[in-house]
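A note from the maintainers: we've had questions about how concatenated examples are separated. There is no special marker in the raw files; a new sequence line simply starts the next protein. For clarity in this README we add a label.
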Amino acid sequence: MKKKSLAALITVSMTAALCTASFAEEAEATIHVLAYGTTANNIQETADIYNGLEERKGTVVVDIGDGSYTSLLPSLASGEGIPDVFEIQSRDVGSFYTTYGTEMFVSLDSILKGEEENFVEGMIKPALAEDGSYYAIPWNSGPCVLYYQPAVLEECGIDVSTLTTWDAYIEAGKTVKEKTGKYFAAFNTNGTGCDEMMMWFNQLAGSYYSEDGSVQLNTPQMHQTLELMKEMYDAGIVCDLPNAWDDRIQAMSSGSIAALPYASWYTATMEESCADQSGQWAVTLLPAFEEEGNVNSILGGGYLMISASCEEQELALDFLRYSMMTAKGNEINLKYGDFPSYMPCYTESYFDEASEYFGGQEVNKFFTEVANGPVTDYGPYFTDIQPHLMEIVGEIVSGADMDETLDAHTEAVNAIIATK
């Protein structure tokens, strides 16, 4: 009886020990990924598939955050409660390196070194820190195109192939506005957005910094960008967006806009928010600032980073590699409108699929042809610069002097930086 009890006790103890070990092993092999918006849905599906792989290195759990980094920034500042993996917007990578120090993040050299040429240059180059290492992996990029409604242009007698410069585009916009009442562009002028400004500034390969590293906003490229925006505004072809994001969606869904220069990632929003306009849209190249000038531009995009406090760095690195550098991972990215930065996947068949929404056009294939826009160095202080860009647009379209406005904002930003 005692022997049986002892044997049973040993069996129970061994089982408990094995269960405890198994539980500990499972707990250790788990990472949390913080994402936001539609990209959270993307990462969730990727995580679900990764978690089902036999060769996976652990379990990935996705948590929902917001694009303003409401929970992330306090965690980074305090060094406590930092997510294992988190998403940041492409324009913020330099600011994160400078503000928090690269020692707060895990080097991604093991998966990125030697792969640089496989990524869109405008995404991989800004991710390189001053110490020569990478601490952020490019995720989605934002090659820009002209979204337009072919039927409206045809009704107005406009051949889209003639819209080769922004001057020609403005003239066409006047015709469309006069004949249909529809707008040919949309941007914000009250200080809540500056996407379009950044798009045109990138098209001109502009820089926000002088050679000595200080912020300099009064540049020829900035003048050209703002002059274009004012010309469009004065021509009456711009739909003003008091709330940059929400009002753009409202204007598109109400049928107020016939053409919109914007980024590839907006396709997902159009398909969801303007579903009843399926088949009414197409994409083409951006006009240039001058005949035969550059027609490529990148707006937005994102990176994933790993916190140095992550206890399962091998799992985190493997998940980043799977998500951003495999055919399946990028198929999911594309499904959610997150155009991949990893160019080897551009030869995959899913890029050749015709889009019903865009009238049978192979839009994703088109995006691959304009994926490499100029490289913009957002640098270490873009979080300080951006609020001023939002203000500048409104001031210039309202008639403020260009040099005085840009000099004043340059001085204001550098004064903020000097206090850090």
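[label: protein 2]
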Amino acid sequence: MRSIASSVLLASALAAGCGPKVFPLASTGIIAAKDDAELVARGEYLFHGAGACSGCHTTIEQGVAIKAGDRPAPSGGHVWKMGPLGTLYSPNITQDAKTGVGAWADDDLARMIKHGQRPDGTAGVFMVFAVGHIADDDVRALVSYMRTIAPVANEVPRHDIGLLGKMVLGGIEPRSYDGKAAPPPVGPTVERGRYLAWGPCDCRGCHSEADGFAVKAGREFVGADAPMESEIEGDTNKYLAPNLTPDPSGIAGKWTEEQFLQRFKEGRTQKGSPMPWGNFQNLQEDDVKALWAYLKTLPPTKKDFPLTVIPKK
């Protein structure tokens, strides 16, 4: 009994000490929304296209139903079940003041996009790891567009983090920011492709080997370590983010540019795929060409992926 009581007390102490840490608020460079039609349109493109924000800030069912031209309300509700770590929920980021981000200052929104840091100083786990570095002008465009989104009252559950999750996730820090003031201009260039792959589209985040939550340096774009379980109830398939390098075993080595362009035009073909294909159907052709141009410059790395959709045996 004594050992059990001691274990309970230790677990309680760990849980209390492993909650989310509060960090000094990171500087955003004073990014403010602007009522500028061109800027808002660029933000809309990033939100529903390159950045795929609406693919995560909707329910799983709504996210996989997105197709070219759709503008679903980002009222949250996507669920990530992380086993013993707990369960995460994407928040409502409409302009509802009570259940969304309508009461947040522009600076708060910019800080979350740039650093993955909430207004209370804690880190937003998903935003720290699942969003690439975005140039200040594009952050300003996103914030400007978000201010035009109609409020939707939808109370999303708080993250349900277990003891192990508090120990693992509690010490995560807001990310440093090495973005530029302005993004490369739209065009089928390597520079633009690199910005998209490491920034708004964050191809690096899924198509790389990882050590825990962090991408392994030097193993970017070589494909994921292991396939992911489907988030769709009843879908028993697993999905593997493939090697994108120009090695004969990689996408940029196996495919032609035309095949790459066509795949983005097709959109979602597998309902359970974690790739936000519906959002990426909204990509401008020059941006898809830019991604291709950048992938062709990567060091060729041999890593076969016979299947990207793996049926359950």
